[in-house]
Amino acid sequence: xxxxxxxxxxxxxxxxxxxxxxxxxxxxxxxxxxxxxxxxxxxxxxxxxxxxxxxxxxxxxxxxxxxxxxxxxxxxxxxxxxxxxxxxxxxxxxxxxxxxxxxxx
Length: 105
Prior knowledge:
With 105 residues, this protein is mainly alpha-helical. Helices cover 70% and strands 4% of the residues.
């Protein structure tokens, strides 16, 4: 009986998040829904904006952990999404570090 309940919850979660980029099975559905000509410029612009930080992250990962690098690049991208210009986002996130670790105040 409990197994069936868990399967129903799993199905509900699948249906709720099937278009979320957090889940790998959603990629096909998102491709079908969002791969329209008007999104080509958005795709190009988005990838162009994040490319310097992707390259930065690849270099950074050689000197520190992948976890730290992913957090740092994700934080920069998040701040850019919140309206920070790329340089300010980068400097802000770097200011949160102490000896290649994010410290808490």
